[in-house]
Amino acid sequence: MMNESLKQHLIECLKHNVRHDGRKLDEFRPITVEYNISRSAEGSARVKVGNTEVLAGIKLTVEKPYPDTPDHGSLMVGVELLPLSSPAFESGPPSIDAIEIARVVDRGIREAKAIDTKKLCITYGEKIWTVCIDICTINDDGNLLDAAGLASLAALQDACFPYYDGTQLDYKKKTDVKLPVLKLPLQVTVYKIGDKLLVDPLSEEEFVYDARLTVTTTPDGTICALQKGGEKQLSLQEIEQMITMGTEKGHELRKYLKDAGN
Amino acid sequence: MTYTKRFDGRKAFDEIRPISAKAGVIPRAHGSAVFTIGKTVAYAAVYGPRELHPKFLQNPKTGILRCHYNMMPFSGSGERVKPGPSRRSREISLVTEKALQPVVDLSQFPNAVVDVFIEFPQTDAGSRCAGICAASIALADAGIPMTDLVAAVSVGIVDDKVLVDLNYDEEAYEEGPVADIPVAILPSTGEFSLLQMDGEISKENLLKALKMGQKAVAQINSVQKQALKEKYAGQEADVADSNTSGGEYHDE
Fold it and tell me: Among A188, A207, B65, B104, which one has the highest count of C-beta atoms within 10 angstroms of its own C-beta?
C-alpha cells in the first residue's frame, strides 16, 4: 500500500498542474513499439510506455464456428498480470484487474470491427480461424491498460497465418498472408484526480485516482468502446472532456503503429 | 543413417547455440535478467527476501527459495499454451528450485521467502536450463547471498552422436535414439545440481555427455558474469557496501 503523505503530496502538486515526474497532465511518457518479438507466436509486439513494458502475442487456431455466426472467425483476449512484473501481482487464476483489462481490449477490437472476421471463415459452419491475443506484463509502472491495448494492435498488425492444408495446421511454416486488419481502434484511459484530468498515470498516480474513463476510438473519431472505473462519479461535462482528450490522444498514439493510415 | 550435420547449421556437436544475457531488465523487481540461447528466451525476476504467506510455510531457521516456471501462452512451438500452472510447469519449478538451492544462502532471512519468477516469450527447447541461467543472474542482481552462479544446458545423444544444447528439431529426431539430459552445474566446482533425462543412453555415453556439459557451462558462466559486470561497472563502491551489510529485507 501507499503511504498517506505521498498520496496527499501527489494531490497537492496536481492542484498546481505538477505531476510526480514533471510531465504535463495530457502527456504520455516515451512510447516504443517493437514488432515480431516472439517467433513462436503468429504475431507479436513489445510496447514500452516509460518503464511499463508489456508483450502481446497471437496464436491462431482452426476451430468450429459458434452456431449463431457460422461464417465468422472468433476473437479471444487474455491478460496475464505476471508476478514477475510487480510485487503486487500474485500467481494464480486471473485477478479481476486482469479480466477487466482483457475485456476492455477485447471490446475495442471487437466493436470497431478491427478484424475482418468474415475472412477468417474457412468452411461455412465447419471451420474458422480463432485469433487468440495474449498480453503478458513484464514491468508494471502504471497504465498497463493502455499499454495492453497498443500492444494488442501491434501484434495484430504483425500476425501472419500459419500453413493450413485443409486438415492439418503446420505452425512451423508461416505463410506471408497477413491477418485481415481493417482499422486500428486506439484505447486511451483518462484519469480524474481531484478536479484534474490526466493520461498515462504512474503506479503512484494509479493509487490515488478518483475515477477513470477508457475511451476507444477509430481513425474517423467514432467511439467504439467505453469503460468507466474508479470509486467516484463523473459529471456529463467531465465525460465530454475525457472523451475529447481520449480521442485526441488516440490519434497521437496511432502514429506509433506502422501503416497508421488504417 | 547417422546424424552427421546439425539441423541448425552448428558446426560441432559440442557447440552451444548463440547466447546472450542482460541483468536488471525489470525495474520493479529487486533483481532481474533476460537470458537467450538460440531461439529460447527466458526472463527471470526476483522479489525478496519478503514476508512469506501462508505463515505455516515459514522456517524460523532460514529464508526459503521459491521458483515459478511459466510459459507465456504464445511461447510454444505449436498450439497456444493454456495459461496457469500445469503438472509440467510445477515439476520444472521444483527442479529449478533444487538447481539453485546449493549456491543460495538465505540463513540471514528467517521466515522470509525469495521468489523467482521465470517467464518465456519464445521457446525452442532447453527452456528449463535457460530459465535457471536467467534466475541465477537475477538472484545475484538482487543481492542475494550466493556462493556461485549456476549455469545450465542440455546434453544428450541424437542417433549416434553425443552433443550439447539440443534444439527442438533435435529433440524430435525420429531416425534413431534420442536422449535429452538437462543439467545445471556449479561452474566453480563442476558439480551437478540438476540432472534429468528422458530417452535412452549407455552409461559410457552418459558420462561423456555430462563431461561435455561441464565444458559448455564455462562459456555460459562467462556470459552470466559479463551481464552482471555490465550492469555494475563503475558501481564497485555500492557492491562493496551491500556485501558488508549482507543484503536487505524488502518490506512491501
Answer: A188
